[in-house]
Structure formats: C-alpha cells, structure tokens
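Per reviewer request, we include the raw input and output of the structure prediction for the construct analysed in the revised manuscript.
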Amino acid sequence: MLALRIALALMVLPLASLAVLADDKPALEIAAEQAKPAQVWTIAELAKLKVGLKLTWQHDTGVTVAGKPLVKTQVLEITAVDGDTLSWQVTREIVSIEGESVRRDNHTLKLEGTAAEFAEEAALRTLPLAKEATTSDANLQVNGKAVGCKLITHTAKDDSGTETTQKWWFSKDKPGVCARYERSSGGKIAESLALTAMPE
C-alpha cells in the first residue's frame, strides 16, 4: 500500500508541475506584451499612410524670451511610398537666442523606413512601455474642430522626487497623427506640441 501511495505521488508531481507551467505561459506572454511601447495603431491601419500626409505642430518650448513664450514650428511630411518603405522629411525650426532677440533657421532631415518607424517619428517623443502607461478616450479641439483621440498618459518621478507627466493625444480616425503632446513637471506644463490643423 505504501508503495502504491509513493507511485501515485510521483505521478501527481509531474502533473502539478505541468499545471504551474501552463499558468506561467500566459504570464510570460503578458510580460512580453508589457515590455513593448504603448501601441497606438495596428499594422493594417498604418498601411493606409499615403504620400502627402503633412503634419505641422506649434512647439511651445516652455522657455520665455523678453517675457514672451518661445514657440517653434515642426513639420513632418511623407514624400514617397515604395511598397513597405516610406520616405519622409522632418523640418524643425532651430532658434538661437541673442539677448532679447531670436534668430530662426530651418533644418530639414530626410528619412526612410517602415510605416511603424514613421509613426514613431510622428509620436514626437519616445512612447513609454505599455505597462507604465494608461490609455483612455478623450476629445480635443484642433483648429476649432473636435477630434476623437486615444490619450496615452505616463507619470514618473525623477531622483529628486519631482513628478513628470507626459501625455499624447492620437487621432482615432487618422493613423499616424499625434494631435498633441504635453509634458508637465511639478504640476505645470513645461512643454507642448499642438497640431495646427488635421490633415485631409
């Protein structure tokens, strides 16, 4: 009888081990998913990106010169699509502060890559990991028009304990379009980029 009990115990142990592994598999898959940046658009949605998509943001740097906010312009435009490869250019306004005056120059960078890589550029700042971000629905006004958005929020503290929050408003209807980015530090907006108009 004792031998039978031992044999049954040995049979049960491997089954229990398999049950643990079965329970661990979803956890591993979830962990792998959480290690990815927050997802905004599917591959199928990004495949709809076309030549001519032009996004212009007004960039409030959070800096003031002679008592006025320092605002710059940033433009992103798709110039070509060849199969799965997109070409685009980024034009940023570079400012030089000289006393109370501001000198403005444009710098254009030409790039190419996948639709997903273009979307990373259009997100304006590196998106947080999925496990660190919250996602919700939000409405935003762009040039007087209501835009339904997916809002991604990420909050973290630096070494000094100051809390910084980043927010992205992504258009639900137009893949590849970030309508607004905002960074707040210590409860005050420190930087923002706002789309001047929704593309057609």
